[in-house]
Amino acid sequence: MIVLGLFLLVVATGLVVVAVMDGGSTVSIDVFGAGFESPLWGIFLAGVITGLIALGGLLTLVAGIRRSRDRRREIEYLRRKVAQHEREADHDKPDTELGRDWIDLGAPAARSTAPAATGNVWTPDPAPNVAGHRTHP
User: Fold this and answer.
1) What is the pLDDT of residue 90?
2) Which end of the chain is more exposed for a tag (fewer CB within 10 A), N or C?
3) pLDDT in tens, 97-120
4) Phi, psi at residue 45, to the nearest 5°?
5) Are the C-beta atoms of 20 and 44 separated by less than 8 Å?
6) CA–CA dist 43, 48 (Å, integer)
C-alpha cells in the first residue's frame, strides 16, 4: 500500500508539472452568460482548489461521524460502569440499608397472613402516596 501511495503521488506530481509547463494556451469559458478567457493552467488550478475543498469537506464529515460514534460508545461505557458500580454498592450494603427498588414501590411488603401469637390480625399496608413513599400511621 505504501508503494502504491508513493507511485500515485509521483504520477500526480508529474501531471501537475506537465499541466503548468505546457498549459500556456488560453481557454474561453462561458459561465452563466459571462464569458472570460483563462490560461489552461488556471483551469487546472481551479480544479485542484475545488478538489481540495471537496476533500476538506469529506474529511470534516468523516471526523464528525467518528466523533459522534466515539461519544456514543463512551456514554454507553459510562452507563454500564455506573450500573455495575450501583450493583456492587447494593451488594456491599447490609439488608437493612437496602432501599426498595423503584419497581417494588407499588407492591405491598411481603408479610405473613397468619395471625400473630398475640391474636392481632394482619392488615395490608396503606397505598403509597403520590411521591411513592408509604405512609404509616
Assistant:
1) 80
2) C
3) 445 555 555 555 555 555 555 555
4) -65, -40
5) yes
6) 9
Query: In the chain, what are the helix, strand and coil shares in percent, each to the nearest 5?
Result: 55, 10, 35
Contact call for residues 29 and 36 (beta carbons, < 8 A):
yes
Residue 39 one-letter amino acid: P
Query: For residues 55 and 40, is the Cβ–Cβ distance under 8 A?
Result: no
33-51 residue pLDDT tens: 888 888 877 888 888 899 9
CA dihedral 65, 67, 71, 72 (to 10 degrees): 20
What's the CA dihedral at 83, 84, 90, 91 to 10 degrees? 160
Q: Residue 37 — left, alpha, or beta (φ > 0 → left; ψ -120 to 50 → alpha)?
A: beta
Q: Are 40 and 19 in contact (CB under 8 A)?
A: yes
Query: Higher confidence at residue 19 or residue 53?
Result: 53
The identity of residue 14, as a single letter, is G
